[in-house]
Amino acid sequence: LRVREFLAAQQGLELDVLVERERAGRTPQFTEVATSRSSEPGTIARMKITGHDDRKLFAEVPAEVPDEVLP
C-alpha cells in the first residue's frame, strides 16, 4: 500500500500508541502519531485515530484516561 492509503485505512481505529513526547508517539507499526492531549512519555495509551496529513496520524486521547496520568 502507498503511505496515504495506509494512513487513511487507520482512521477510526483504536490503537496502542507508545508516547515518545508529551503530544507525540508511534503505533506498533512505527507510524508517527500527533495526539490531542499531553500524555506521559514512555507510556502506552489506547487512542482513537481521527485523521492524517499524508505523513502522520492524528489521534484523540480518550477521556477515560485519568488526569493524574497526564501532565
SSE arrangement:
Blueprint: H1 3-10, E1 14-21, E2 24-26, E3 32-35, E4 44-52, E5 57-60
Architecture overview:
The chain is mainly beta and 71 residues long. The protein contains one helix and five strands; from the N terminus they run H-E-E-E-E-E. The protein has one helix spanning 3-10; strands spanning 14-21, 24-26, 32-35, 44-52, 57-60. A five-stranded mixed β-barrel has the order 1-2-3-5-4. The termini are far apart.
Judged by helices, strands and strand pairing, the structural class is: mainly beta
Order of helices and strands: HEEEEE
Helical content band: 10-25%
| Gap between N and C termini | 37 Å
The largest sheet, given as strand count, sense and whether it forms a barrel, is: 5 strands, mixed, barrel
Number of helices: 1
Proportion of β residues?
Answer: 35-45%
Would you tell me the overall average pLDDT?
89
Radius of gyration: 11 Å
Q: State the oligomer.
A: single chain
Please describe the structure with a list of short key phrases separated by commas or semicolons.
71 residues, mainly beta, five-stranded mixed β-barrel, 5 strands
What is the compact description of this entry?
This protein is mostly beta strands and 71 residues long.
